[in-house]
Amino acid sequence: MADRRDESVVDTVRKVEAIFKDRLDQAFTAINADLLKLDDEVDRDQVIQALVVALFRAETRR
């Protein structure tokens, strides 16, 4: 049962990635310079994760 649930999560993640790939590419390009300027103290992964969440929320509000 857990394997089916894991497969479902992976499938969902892949679908989300496919839907947002173009938007993510555009967003990463737009903010890449800003990410490079961040201090080492800032966790870049957190910034990227927040961006993905913001894009998802924006898309679901449409």
Explained architecture:
There is one protein chain. The chain is an all-alpha fold. It has one domain (2-60). The chain has helices spanning 2-37, 44-60. Helix 1 crosses helix 2. The chain is globular and about 40 Å long. 0% of the residues are buried.
The computed structural class is mainly alpha
Number of strands: 0
The largest pleated sheet is described as: none
Count helical runs: 2
Q: How much helical structure, as a percent, in the residues? A: over 70%
Shape descriptor: globular
What's the number of domains? 1
What is the residue-mean pLDDT, rounded to a whole number? Answer: 75
Secondary-structure element string: HH
Sheet-strand content, in percent, reads under 5%
Low-confidence stretches: none
Quaternary structure classification? single chain
* Rg, alpha carbons: 14 Å
Taking the alpha carbons of the first and last residues, their distance comes to 34 Å
Search tags:
single chain; 62 residues; mainly alpha
Write a brief caption for the model:
The protein has helices spanning 2-37, 44-60. It is mainly α and 62 residues long. It has one domain.
Map the helices and strands:
Layout: H1 2-37, H2 44-60
Helix pairs in contact: 1-2
